[in-house]
Design brief:
The protein is mostly helical. Helix content is 76%, strand content 0%.
Length: 211
């Protein structure tokens, strides 16, 4: 097998392993999940699995990293799609909907559960989740806010970041709580839009420095 073919084969194996890992972690706690179950669902031997991932902790890390990268890519695409809009309100509404949909995403719900339950034993997971998720979202959002600074405003860069954190918190908190207690199904498209619209209005009233 050529190096290129070997690389493609490994990519396919890794995808199958991570898909199976996410599936198993969804059904079981991290402690109860086994590499044997993951190997079986990924249609390979434990030996082949261990050749790519030395232990269950490495699988957990890889699953979290992959899901966070997917989240980051989707959020960047949402930010890019708002460039055509002129009003900050319209941009925030689109961004807010993306944030809520992320909170209600079943796969991200599994990731958050894993991070919460395992970060005490593996502190790097909490750092990874924050830096790759919340911190990146706030960074992108602060750049959007900076582009709508009022002409007479003297807002500093740190203030943009604080404002971004404020918007993220008021938009995401309630959906996050409902998702954690198994009530994500209560959120309809209309309900999400109404929640985001009210959150955007509340945010803009609290931050009149933005046009």
């Amino acid at each position: 097998m050529t190096p290129i073919a070997q690389g493609i084969a490994n990519e396919d194996k890794i995808k199958r392993i991570l898909d199976a890992s996410l599936e198993v972690f969804t059904e079981f706690s991290f402690e109860d999940a086994t590499t044997g179950e993951i190997a079986g669902r990924s249609r390979m031997s434990k030996r082949d699995l261990y050749a790519l991932f030395p232990n269950k902790q490495a699988l957990l890390m890889a699953v979290v990293m992959r899901e966070m990268q997917l989240q980051e890519r989707k959020f960047r695409d949402t930010i890019a799609s708002t460039a055509r809009l002129r009003s900050l309100r319209s941009k925030l509404d689109l961004i807010g909907i993306a944030l809520v949909e992320d909170m209600l995403s079943p796969s991200m719900g599994v990731v958050r559960r894993l991070v919460i339950t395992e970060s005490l034993k593996q502190p790097f997971l909490g750092n990874l989740f924050y830096e790759s998720g919340v911190a990146q979202q706030c960074k992108h959002l602060s750049e959007v806010l900076a582009s709508h600074q009022g002409k007479s405003s003297t807002t500093r860069s740190g203030d943009f970041e604080s404002a971004a954190e404020h918007y993220l918190s008021i938009v995401a908190f309630f959906p996050s709580v409902m998702a954690e207690i198994g009530m994500r199904g209560r959120w309809t498209d209309a309900g999400i839009k109404k929640h985001v619209s009210l959150s955007t209005e509340q945010f803009l009233k609290a931050h009149p420095q933005f046009d």
